[in-house]
Amino acid sequence: MNARIPIPPASSVDDLAGLIETLHASAPERDRKGGHAAQEKALIRTHGLLLDAVPRAFGGRGRSWSDVFATVRRIAAVDSALAHVLAFHHLQVATVLIYGSEEQQARWLTATVREQGWWGNGMNPLDKRLQARAVEDGFVLDGTKSFCSGTSGSSYMTFSAEQAGTGGAMLLGIVPTQQAGIVVLDDWDPIGQRQTDSNSVAFSDVALPARDVIRAADAVPTPFHTLRTCIGQLVLVNLYLGIAIGAQREARHHARTSARPWVSSGVAHATDDPFMLNRFGELRVQVAASNALADRAAHALDAAFAQGHSLSALERAEVSVATAEAKVVAHRAGLYASQELFEVVGARGTRSVLGFDRFWRNVRTHTLHDPLDYKLNMLGRWALKDEAPPPSLYN
Fold first, then answer.
1. Are 116 and 87 spatial neighbours (Cβ–Cβ below 8 Å)?
2. Contacts from 288-291 at CB under 8 Å and sequence distance 24+?
3. Which of 196, 227, 244, 394 lies in the 20 to 30 Å Cα band around 368?
4. What are the beta bridge partners of residue 372?
């Protein structure tokens, strides 16, 4: 592993204004081009943001999930693709903290701090093409994993693989991304979130030592283990919310500087149009509600995460419910704000150089992650029948 890289002073981490301004300036053009945002990821790394979720015991910042998600949200308001990559990096750090032994945590997270390395995600639970075959000193991996966000340019990745001969049971492990036999494919071509590096990864005869298995295929998960799903869902909440905030800001800026009143409005300025004012009132309500629920869910996660393996099933369920409530509202706020942006900017705002369409494309791509109907059904069961949501791939 590489030599220690100096950690930026706290002031450079606390002041994100310069980074956000830089990302905002180039976001429309980069969104059109897609591909790997190596330069921008280097800026995020330089600001020390890769260390936010790493505990202080391993040399990281040790920030709360509330603070981590607040940063993700701020970046998502200008560039939801890079906010996605950063958030998924934090999710893999959480995976090591949740499933890893003390030795695994110390080894991998100390390396993360020393090298300031990016984590990639190979945990797609619905893709079971990656197979793990047991050998004397561990496993051999063969197959492909899709939607592996952040793997391009990463140093390490967590992954799930079906263990051969177990009837479909999945083990979790960690591998260095540059290990022999691992190839990150170039097959990510969606309408939105174009720079999330969510490519497929091919594994061919890749060695997985037993010491790098963080969850055995036959392990029985505790409520604390299943918090990983809540963290992943809160990643999406804050991406949707960030997109809504970004669209709202672009709409406000355009209304105050460029918008013209409608010919029959009877007012001299667009900002005096009563329908425009109503539109911004609705935007404010949706974004404010989403903010409040996202913060509440993050605080619930902080409290649950601090309990570790003493967390009860009911306490875990309460985090899941708070997260689902936040996700429903953020989902709607993101779609609403990214659509209403065009009602404000009008026909002139459809010029491609402005890139206003990226807000809708990004949030629409992401909100297809899992159906809203099933979130509402789960919340209805909790509200009406007191049925606690069982841990699942998306709850």
1. no
2. 289/329, 289/333, 290/240, 290/241, 290/244, 290/326, 290/329, 290/330, 290/333, 291/241
3. 227
4. none
pTM (two decimals): 0.95
With beta carbons less than 8 A apart as the criterion, state whether 52 and 60 touch.
Answer: yes
Distance CA 112, CA 144 (A): 25
Reference 71, options 231, 250, 287, 239; nearest CA is 239
Compute the distance between CA of residue 113 and CA of residue 110 in angstroms, rounded to an integer: 5
Chain-centroid distance of CA 109 in Å reads 19
Q: How far apart are CA 212 and CA 323, in angstroms?
A: 30
